[in-house]
TrEMBL record:
Residue intervals of the SAM-dependent MTase RsmB/NOP-type domain: 176-469
Active site: 407 (nucleophile)
This protein's record includes keyword RNA-binding: yes
Stated name of the protein: SAM-dependent MTase RsmB/NOP-type domain-containing protein
Transmembrane regions: none
Signal peptide: none
Family membership: Belongs to the class I-like SAM-binding methyltransferase superfamily. RsmB/NOP family.
Residues reported to bind S-adenosyl-L-methionine: 282-288, 307, 334, 354
Organism this protein belongs to: Boudabousia marimammalium
Record-level GO BP terms: regulation of DNA-templated transcription; RNA methylation
Family matches, as InterPro entries: MeTrfase_RsmB-F_NOP2_cat (IPR049560), MeTrfase_RsmB-F_NOP2_dom (IPR001678), NusB-like_sf (IPR035926), NusB_RsmB_TIM44 (IPR006027), RCMT (IPR023267), SAM-dependent_MTases_sf (IPR029063)
Keyword list, A-Z: Methyltransferase, RNA-binding, S-adenosyl-L-methionine, Transferase
Molecular function GO labels: RNA binding; RNA methyltransferase activity
Amino acid sequence: MSDKKYSSGYRAKRKADSARLAALDVLAQVREEDAYANLVLADTLRDYGVEGRDAAFATELTYGTLRMRGYYDALIERSASRPLKELDPLLLDVLRLGCHQLLNMRVPEHAALAETVDVARQVTSDGPSKLVNAVLRTIQRTAPREWEALIKGQSDSRKATAEITSHPEWVVEAIRDALGDSSFDATEVVEALSANNIPAKVCLAARPTLTTRAQLLRELGDQGSAAQVASTSVIMDAGDPGRVAAVKDGRAGVQDSGSQYVTEVFTSIPLTGSDREWLDLCAGPGGKAALLTGYARSVGARLTANELHKHRARLVAQNLKAFSREDYRIRVGDGRTMAEHDGERGYYDRVLLDAPCSGLGALRRRPEARWRKDPRDLAELNALQWNLLRGAVDCVRTGGLIGYITCSPHLSETRDIVSQAVAELPLELVNLAPQVVDLPDALTTDGCIQLWPHRHGSDAMFLAVLRKK
């Protein structure tokens, strides 16, 4: 356990259930060390000797508790009759684990209570464990609908929606604005936020010219099914993607269906004149670069994959290993100033800019991410996105296309920056309506694409296509 107050002899006792202790340890690492749960969970389970079904239980307990932390905290604070800041952080984590077992796992209530109290007793003492028992019993006695009604009656609509859906208030506001709703508790706002609490399924991308979705489905057998949105997407219903032959040899890769879709749409826009040189301006780690290389190869074009960081450029190379070196080149450099190098200015027919962003569109994939993001970071991100977009304009030829992509629906990262680009740069916005006839609810009022987990089963990807004048 990370908390020094309780660390002495902690792992030696092992009286409480090991799966729950392991989950508690991961929560402490996330809270104290800014660890990522997916990176520390496997080692922690190994340390506690947790395997098989117990490991699956501990995994769901960990990730589910992190996702629903905001909701559980609202219930705990009301049930403990004291501010959360007055509770010991480790004890608060124990209470959160108990809440998840009671409210969102198929654990018998008596077992959830007894086992959580045992964990509290082991890592603290009898006094705090009695508080855990009392708080969880109060939560148990009140039905979820009653809790929601209580929260709504005690808070304004923004705070209530934030607590009920387990998100920071600023994220609730961002999602409301992106959806164009007038109220924080509008049905679709709640649906969009609630979708972030449903774990994303593993999705594979069949890389063009290397394999097809049909071939990938045949390889997977009963472990795979066709995914929504992209024609290259396959949902992996069971098994380890790392063991799939097509993934091992690079014919396929793990990639969200929305990410695949926006790449597919961008490459399908007709282009007048030359269409032989394509650029991925921020290529790491290489999922979109692999799709782009396949699409480019199918029309006789070549991809240049640019990446700022050498270690991420190596990941790009790994993702492109199944293609011929004639199909692509990899360069390391800053996309903001790439056009300053010989031969790069105005050289490319298509430029894809998958811009660094807040990642608000992928919160379902990273359970602790929503609690770490800070709205004050947006100004710096917006400046970076703008400078990269200017870099893309410098690299694309007159009449060429820029695909601007983010994994965020936040207006400052999407439609606002695109509007500014059309107003200040030699660009015109391409209306994507012809490309989304089968997906009309993905089209924004200005002709861009905004995907949503609750509508499309994908991450909330955004795409604007701009033509250089």
